[in-house]
């Protein structure tokens, strides 16, 4: 019995070490993205062995490669690599939300680079986001991206859907600073300037996350600029 208990304890410790190691990898990727450390992120991704990573970590690798394509100065081959890895994840794990989400991020970055691609890629983005939301109803990321997609799409934004998805995102992650910022943009487009002012003010109240420093600081700076505009338009009775 003592040997069995010792063995179970060792297994428990090893399991927790493994989980911590996996979390550390994901955190490092997020940190380098959120602090715009392109060179460090590129080197880190190149030294990872995908066969030794969890499925969740592989999806973070996908996001790392597509982020480098988006803002890190890397060429289209990085987007292609991200796409191929995400496609493999989906084929091997057809009910895992993060595979679909990561592929939607890849396609969204392509549209950001060339708005004309929206004509051919929006349907694919929506399909993958819908799958991600279906299989990850308690995750915030796919709902956030779906909200942004419906708010910021170059042609025919759907403000009702944007509000619905951003609301689900905020419910799943009530302290996500950037969701509040996007809510502010949403209510500006709806010309509800007092409501927009509330959300922009909330952005300034929330703390900056170390792993998303560049992104959060940018949101706060933009919120400050928008506050100076919407305050003039907010006419509470």
CATH superfamily of the largest domain: Tetratricopeptide repeat domain
Distinct helical segment count: 11
Largest sheet: none
* Termini gap: 74 Å
Percent of residues in helices: over 70%
Net shape: globular
* CATH class bucket of the largest domain: Mainly Alpha
Structural class: mainly alpha
Any low-confidence stretches, pLDDT <50, length ≥5? 1-22
Count of structural domains? 2
What is the H-and-E element order? HHHHHHHHHHH
| Mean pLDDT value | 90
Backbone CA Rg: 20 Å
Q: What CATH architecture of the largest domain would you give?
A: Alpha Horseshoe
CATH topology of the largest domain: Serine Threonine Protein Phosphatase 5, Tetratricopeptide repeat
Strand percentage: under 5%
Give the total of beta strands. Answer: 0
InterPro entries: TPR-like_helical_dom_sf, TPR_rpt
Keywords: TPR repeat
TPR repeats: 177-210
């Amino acid at each position: 019995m003592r040997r069995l208990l010792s063995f179970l304890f060792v297994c428990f410790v090893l399991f927790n070490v493994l989980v911590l190691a996996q979390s550390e990898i994901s955190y490092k990727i997020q940190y380098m993205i959120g602090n715009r450390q392109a060179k460090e992120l590129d080197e880190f991704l190149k030294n990872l062995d995908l066969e030794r990573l969890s499925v969740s970590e592989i999806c973070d690798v996908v996001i790392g490669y597509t982020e480098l394509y988006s803002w890190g100065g890397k060429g289209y081959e990085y987007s292609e690599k991200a796409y191929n890895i995400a496609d493999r994840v989906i084929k091997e794990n057809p009910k895992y939300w993060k595979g679909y989400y990561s592929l939607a991020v890849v396609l969204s970055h392509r549209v950001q680079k060339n708005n004309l691609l929206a004509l051919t890629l929006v349907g694919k983005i929506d399909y993958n986001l819908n799958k991600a939301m279906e299989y990850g109803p308690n995750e915030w990321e796919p709902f956030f991206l779906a909200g942004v997609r419906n708010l910021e799409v170059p042609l025919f934004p759907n403000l009702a859907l944007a509000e619905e998805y951003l609301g689900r995102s905020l419910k799943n992650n009530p302290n996500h600073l950037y969701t509040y910022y996007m809510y502010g943009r949403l209510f500006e487009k709806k010309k509800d300037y007092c409501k927009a002012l509330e959300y922009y003010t909330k952005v300034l109240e929330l703390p900056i996350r170390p792993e998303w420093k560049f992104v959060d600081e940018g949101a706060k700076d933009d919120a400050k600029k928008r506050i100076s505009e919407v305050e003039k338009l907010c006419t509470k009775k």
